[in-house]
Amino acid sequence: MNSFYTEAELKTLGLKKYGKNVLISRKCSIYGADNIELGNNIRIDDFCILSGRITMGSFIHIAAYTALYGGEHGVELNDFVNISSKVSIYSISDDYSGEYMTSPVVPYKYRKVTSKKVIVNRQSIIGCGCTILPGVIIAEGSAFGAMSLINSNSNAWSINCGIPARQIKHRSKKLLELEENFKNEFEV
After folding, report:
1. Residue among 161, 136, 10, 150 at smallest CA distance from 75
2. Burial class (CB in 10 A: 0-12, 13-18, 19+), 51
3. Per-residue pLDDT in tens (0 to 9) along the chain, 188 residues
4. Structure confidence at residue 37 (pLDDT)
């Protein structure tokens, strides 16, 4: 048996929308499927969690053990984004200051919740074990090294790493030529 859902099984998941060549592991957990929109040529590997509002463009890979918590404001992944394993993306988070209670099982009146959309723009890559916090916008072509804490917006075509993440150098745009050749060759 294939480890990814078949086309017939994808139809039964209740996704808001999905395109062609979508591969979702049978071991992926999906919450609020009616808030999830997927483009074409997407692969989501084992033990991922998709929860809340999530929108994905095309040619996206989500590696094993990654969690996307879209909440009500959402997580948006644009074309040619790669998310490595064990990445956590949060569009929603509790206040940990001690001034409020935390936990989704505690009523909102006792909590202070931050909820802001997260956007990962095209041709970006997020390394293994990174965490992205609410409201962050990852600019086009940004790359983040493993274990980075991404708590602020990035510069376009930058390479970043650290806790918190900071730019360490510029990233080549050569891959834009490769993308164009790829699109022409495969009539994308």
Report:
1. 136
2. buried
3. 689 999 999 999 999 999 999 999 999 999 999 999 999 999 999 999 999 999 999 999 999 999 999 999 999 999 999 999 999 999 999 999 999 999 999 999 999 999 999 999 999 999 999 999 999 999 999 999 999 999 999 999 999 999 999 999 999 999 999 999 999 998 88
4. 98
Closest CA to 163 of 145, 185, 141, 183: 145
Domains of the chain: 7-186 (2.160.10.10)
Residue 137 token pair: 């916008």
Strand-strand pairing, 22-24 and 131-132: unpaired
Q: 131-132 and 149-150 as β-strands: parallel, antiparallel, unpaired? A: parallel
CB 150 within 8 A of CB 133: yes
Task: Strand 54-56: give its sheet, edge to edge.
Answer: 17-18, 36-38, 54-56, 75-77, 118-120, 137-138
